[in-house]
Amino acid sequence: MILLAIGDVMGSAGRDALARALPGIVRRHGVEFVVANGENAAHGAGITPSTAAALFAAGVDVITGGNHTWDRPEANELLNSEPRLLRPANYPPSASGRGSGIFRTKSGVKIGVLNLQGRVFMPPPEVDDPFAEADRSLEELRRETPIILVDFHAEATSEKTALALHLAGRASVVYGTHTHVATADERILAGGTAFMADVGLTGSYDSVIGVDKAAALRRFLDAVPHRLEPASGDPRLSGLLIDIDPRDGRANWARRIEVAVTENGTPGTARLLKGAPVAERVLAQAAARATALREKGMVPTLALLSVGEDPASRVYLGKKKEAAERAGIVVVERRWNADDDPETLLTALADLGRDPSVHGVLLQLPLPDGWDTNSMIESLPFAKDVDGFHPVNAGLLAQGKPLFVPCTPLGIAEMLRFYEVPVAGRAVTVVGRSGVVGRPLATLLGSKGNDATVTVAHSRTDNLFEATRSADVLIVAMGQPQAIGAEHVKRGAVVVDVGVHRVDGKLVGDVDAATVAHVASALSPVPGGVGPLTVAFLLQNTVKAAELAAHSVPRPRA
Prior knowledge:
By secondary structure, the protein is of the alpha/beta class.
């Protein structure tokens, strides 16, 4: 069960970052419950009914507080009337509101939330001992649920760490708020308690811990108080994702996240890696080579085979045929009905393998149920397998002696060269392990000549964050719409999005482009990124097959 703790929400920039980033995070990670510290939500100081409503509308389930909770006069009534709003439990009993509560996740699981305030280096008023209050409150909360989140609003890292160690094995997660600076110490303590000393700021990062830079600097330079206003530039959401076992409340892992969002609709600064210019150059080269073959009496010919009436397959086949004909490649189409005998396709593949007038054979995937895809691919003549899927071609690629490489991996490698993105010696992570993209791409980029240091990750990778955040070049082909967000990407990384999905009538990729564009240095768009390259390299492979036939170049034996 995934829970999310969000750092101090600071003013309108924090509320805006929360509203823009939180829905995507919840969707990508399947978050069941969200807690956010809102003591600075109202113009940087305190909380009001309208700012609390904005946080709840964004998807927050519980709002915690701290020493600034009462900075607005409306806070007293709000604390007494809104059960989802907490203040530190170690304030005097006469203080408005409450410091803990039992809530339910989206799936109905009970969860306890405890809000505490530290005493070391904190401004007055002096509060009760947070350690003693934690002992008392946890005993009460654990009567109803083993899942307990503790927001410790404190200044001193030593005090936060000490409380986490004190509660190890009794709380599911102890995390700090208040300093507005995220620490890099997230870990699992003894007994399965997740800990992070401070989950950071949700607000403007073009600031001094969320406030306007000029006013803050004047305070330091003049030693005279100046009015501090919340800043607005570079809004980001900062927080901690925690995976909790609902049976015993123990944390399995904790991942620090930071997500940049658009500022007043400003687009991300990532350079767009568009596929069209790359594809045009590859197609022009293929057309020139096809013309040279024709002048020698060789007509490059591609057989396009398909089974059934899948609408997407029909569109893709149409694009391939149109592009082939523009490049001077003859196309021979063969179609089968889904209820035809698969043996007839096997026979056709054998015939095409013997036909010297056909140089490339492509079997459009996916095949309908009942048609054995692997058997059909293995029956393709490997020397005419312009899709590069045949086991012989996969083996040759693995040996560093490629004949035909799958088209999308070829296109991605060429896109990186075209845009002068170096991969030699750099960390490249490929998310996805299919035989169509992920595995051949990893092999291709790790081969001599490309020399990348490649990590292959996938949807079942235990720590996907670690695999993706370490990448200088991140290539995503996992087949899940908008599954990779800014929280997965190292600042300045190059991101290539291979996925294509239709969501709410729009084409999107495997990457949440709106957030990733703010942290990546370059990003391939969807649509308009990798897509055009697949067709271009199909035609290049077809011309290559015709050239091999024309020049009788020895081919590897199967």
